[in-house]
Amino acid sequence: xxxxxxxxxxxxxxxxxxxxxxxxxxxxxxxxxxxxxxxxxxxxxxxxxxxxxxxxxxxxxxxxxxxxxxxxxxxxxxxxxxxxxxxxxxxxxxxxxxxxxxxxxxxxxxxxxxxxxxxxxxxxxxxxxxxxxxxxxxxxxxxxxxxxxxxxxxxxxxxxxxxxxxxxxxxxxxxxxxxxxxxxxxxxxxxxxxxxxxxxxxxxxxxxxxxxxxxxxxxxxxxxxxxxxxxxxxxxxxxxxxxxxxxxxxxxxxxxxxxxxxxxxxxxxxxxxxxxxxxxxxxxxxxxxxxxxxxxxxxxxxxxxxxxxxxxxxxxxxxxxxxxxxxxxxxxxxxxxxxxxxxxxxxxxxxxxxxxxxxxxx
Length: 362
Ligand code: NAD
Known about the structure:
Blueprint (H helix, E strand, L loop, with lengths): L1 H19 L5 E2 L5 E2 L2 E6 L3 H11 L5 E7 L5 H9 L6 E2 L15 E4 L6 H10 L3 E4 L7 H13 L4 E3 L7 H12 L5 E11 L16 H4 L1 H12 L5 E7 L12 E7 L5 E7 L1 E11 L2 E5 L10 E3 L4 E2 L6 H15 L7 H20 L3 E2 L1
Parallel strand pairs: 3-4, 3-6, 4-5, 6-7, 7-8, 9-12
Antiparallel strand pairs: 1-2, 9-13, 10-11, 10-17, 11-12, 13-14, 14-15, 15-16
Bound molecules: nicotinamide-adenine-dinucleotide.
């Protein structure tokens, strides 16, 4: 039984890894050749520059064909590096004219969270599929408006939860669903890092900053994905050790979640503490992951001796290839807008609980 389970988890990983790196030319179910999807990145900050643009070079189903930026000095650098055509370069004012650009199929919104709703809705109205970074938006109302705009304009909306494309994370999600160790009793989940910046959007409330929306969604996802359930109540406490920097938003958020099955989770997130671990205690065993939401190297073990350790060349490349495939094949996305919304419902409740110092029911 133990051996079977180990083999089974390995297979999950192999299938996932194989599907990420399919042959260059995709075939539709009718046998017709499909083109790669053209992607335009909106916002050329850290994540676009260091992770997404390089990962796009590793994809089979996508091509970096456009940029949207408010920083003209970045344009020649990006054109030189990625061969982007003049007609596929936009600023925040003329962005809507992307509607007339047949080279662009997908707009990937990589801006501060307060700008996600506006650019998702504008992209949808331009008839482009949208990939939007996490956290989906600062409010449930924004998330609902984004989902509606994409539905109304018949385009797909994916949230950039790269971890849900990672076979290591998929392995612990499967354990939660198939319950080889019985029900989940307790989850402990933490995601944080030390951010030394003093004047970034992550420290600005209006722009959607705060540890909870940033690293906190990974701690929250750890609990939601490990249980496969949605929380029914939250109790949260915000704190800071650097009030001179974190006076608008929290540096650290600790939150407890209660799930319908009776499972509980204790979660922490911070811009002041390096941490990234997940522990799940089931009725008859346990699972540990450390790290559980990194770009690479996520790995763990279980009480029956099973090791979870799959390596993939690039989480982001796999995410974008799978999202592109879902668009081309008209199949379900792994992380649709509705999944981003589920998190933001809980995040709103966490902020309410921290502000009012009470349990908030969901
Ligand atoms: P960043 O600050 O490095 O880049 C933000 C970009 O937005 C910059 O190019 C900036 O010029 C532009 N921008 C436009 N208007 C702005 C304004 N009013 N204020 C500030 N910047 C403005 O941020 P980042 O780390 O690249 O994060 C961007 C998004 O990507 C966020 O939603 C973040 O949560 C997400 N992200 C996701 C991951 C992941 O692992 N999925 C990792 C990092 C960041």
